Amino acid sequence: MTALPVRSGTAWTRDLTFGIRLAMGARRSGWLRLALTAFGTGIGVLVLLFAASVPHVVSQHHTRSEAPLQQTTRVAGVAPLRQAEVYTDYHGDSVNLDYLQPTGANSPLPPGLSRLPGRGEVVLSPVLAKLLESSDGQLLRPRIPGRVVGTIADDGLTGPAELIAYIGAKIPTSQAMTVYGFGSEQPGQPTPPLLLVLVVVGAVVLLFPVFVFVVTAARLSGAERDRRLAAVRLVGADARQIRRIAAGEAVLGAVAGLVIGAGLFLAVRPLVERQTLGSISVFTQDVVPSVPFLVIIVLGIPVLAVGATLFALRRTIIEPLGVVREASPSKRRLWWRLIPVLLGIALLAAQASHRADLSTTELVAGVVALLLGIPLLLPWILQRVVGAARRGTPALQLATGRLRLDSGTPARVVAGVAVVLAGAVALFALLAAAQRNYGIPSDNGRAGQATIDLSTPGASRPDGLASTVSRQRGVLAAAAVQEVGLSDGGASFQAYVAPCSSLSKLDSAIRSCHDGDVFANGNAGLRPGESEQLTFGSDDRSVRIQLPGRIGSTSEDGILAYTVAMTPGALRGVSLSEATASVLIRYDQRQRDTMERIRNAAAPLRWQASVDDLTSVSASANQRTFGTIKRGLYAGALLTLGMAGATMLVLAVEQVRERRRQLAVLAASGVPRSMLARSVLWQNAIPLVIAALVADATGLVLGALLLRIAGEHAGADWTDTAVLTAVAVAVVAAATALTLPAVRRATRPQMLRSE
């Protein structure tokens, strides 16, 4: 054996180094332990590195989003750029079409362009160019006329999946934005409390289990490590040196985990460009861990591993002739385990009482404290349950007997999955509330609804456009209308003016119609014969009109449901020359690509027409934000749950390997292998059931508190809770089933050999 280093003022350094050398010089089993520890730690490091990259990703996305913002303040000596923006959708993706016309040689250049496109020329983002070249972009080509002369550089895009085109055109001054530069800042809208709570809680729930897994992985193969340390004691090491040497072994596993995690991060990092969350995509070069967080990870992982190792040795006496542990497990105390739970509830309850002044720090602290109670309470609850279990089948008695000897390790094994489950239950409660507020309602089989708004006031009714649209396959009805505003002194309504023939096509409830009639939903509150104020869009001009003595009804779910429909006779003597023209459309949602054909019908009008799908597209910024957050949380929960299953599989296999001699003795004594396998299943099933119950209870309490903070009604989503619990149980069951081959190997007679 290698001589033990002499103690000196650098005892920690010498002993840590010796521990690393001892671990590296171990036999095959030692290298297997190191590989398992490094793998479990590496998975956690992978998740932490991606989490540490979020600040840089958000910062770069903010910078890229600001780059194309227009500066409209006049700048002396700069020839302005005329710009007209058109936003269209294609198969659910947003496409930005920017028409440009320079007025001089020094007109400002949008970011990402080397020169301005001339009339009839087009510059595309790389992904849009690829789409137009493929057969999938066939229906989009009519909306982007011109010859492609280049692609937009990365500094002009918010992400690799952005669909944007700069098109050279002649734009009338009255229809263009006058731009003197790019990159101006505009204040953003504050995130609603419910969405803010979703983001904060989601980050905590997805990252907190990582630390549980890292700490658990650091305590693998404790029995074998203790035997090796006992041999070191035999050559003269004292108890303090033994702990420092054990810390050195933990440092090696943690450093190896850092290397593996960094390698996985570099391998997985290029794949982020293929993923989108809502309309957000990320460049690979933007996924860079923040330096402060990177330092915390590099230093914190070894510290966590060393702390977990020293904590595991607190009740172990390593002597030169062997290892002595307590003959019977000590009775675990409950009072200090309840402190984090009560602290978390108190912090979150305080936030709920003054949610107008929401503190992110207190919110995170409350969630972490409440989730921390799960790994702290599980060993105590498990010890009480198995202590009272004295009957059952032989396999069950073998399992409970083993759990009575050591309830801490099985509880730690399922603690990570339990934390993920509790956090997911709370998140699903928040998502259910957010879905009610920001979700997009289903179509329920109704006809689709769309509008084409013309931006030029005073235009004649677009009967030609309505006729063109009505001929498109899948369109049920299309009619030209004029849009005005109607106010009764309290509520304001959008009013459409069209003849009876057009209104009857748009709404099946309008059967009897005469010129001079007015139609509205009963919720509008208009009273027949009353005088109302009529306005014209953003124009200050308004006139008063008299409603007829009878007001007809519109369908409650039709395209005219939340508007007022008026025939021209109801506005006799009122000039509509300043009214905005629109085309209202009803279409069959079962027909594929109907909306794409409608958008193509309006494409010749370019920036003068705006097409909106009122059925399947949400124009609300909060709805788009919710969609992005929801997809991100689902992806993160899936990754974290997968990590939990992989780590648990590693830990379960290691547990079987540590007990291989005991299992071999039982098999040699006549105990059937099938009974031993069932006992192993019971050893995981009992902690799992207890962990699931504790996790569900914690998740429901956490969800109720978070809903109060967000200002929503507390309520449990039992369906999602049951599904999440079933998924977590399935993950653990799969990991347990994969350990059965290790049980079979452990019961071979060769495992009876002893050195």
Features:
755 residues; alpha+beta; ten-stranded mixed beta sheet; six-stranded mixed beta sheet; 19 helices; 22 strands; elongated; disordered N terminus
Brief characterization of the structure:
It is built from 19 helices and 22 strands. It is an alpha+beta fold and 755 residues long.
Describe the structure.
The chain is of the alpha+beta class and 755 residues long. The longest helix is centred in the N-terminal third of the chain and has 39 residues, at 28-66. It is elongated and about 110 Å long.
Q: For the residues shown, what is the average pLDDT?
A: 78
Largest sheet data: 10 strands, mixed
Number of strands: 22
Percentage of residues in DSSP E strands: 15-25%
Question: Cα-atom Rg, whole angstroms?
Answer: 34 Å
Q: What is the first-to-last residue Cα distance?
A: 16 Å
Structural class: alpha+beta
Counting DSSP H or I runs of 4 or more residues, the number of helices is 19
Shape call: elongated
Pick out the low-confidence regions.
1-9, 440-444, 617-621
Show the helix and strand layout:
Blueprint: H1 11-24, H2 28-66, E1 70-71, E2 81-90, E3 93-102, E4 121-124, H3 126-133, E5 147-151, E6 163-168, E7 177-179, E8 181-182, H4 193-217, H5 222-234, H6 239-268, E9 276-277, E10 280-281, H7 291-312, E11 316-319, E12 322-325, H8 335-353, H9 360-388, H10 394-405, H11 408-438, E13 448-454, H12 463-470, E14 475-487, E15 492-497, H13 500-506, E16 518-520, E17 531-536, E18 539-546, E19 551-552, E20 563-566, E21 580-587, H14 594-602, E22 609-613, H15 621-658, H16 660-668, H17 673-709, H18 718-737, H19 740-746
Parallel strand pairs: 3-6, 4-5, 15-20, 16-19
Antiparallel strand pairs: 1-8, 2-3, 2-7, 4-6, 9-10, 11-12, 13-21, 13-22, 14-15, 14-17, 14-21, 16-20, 17-18
Helix pairs in contact: 1-6, 2-4, 2-6, 2-7, 2-15, 4-7, 4-9, 4-11, 4-15, 5-6, 6-7, 8-9, 8-17, 9-10, 9-11, 9-17, 10-17, 11-15, 11-17, 11-18, 15-18, 17-18
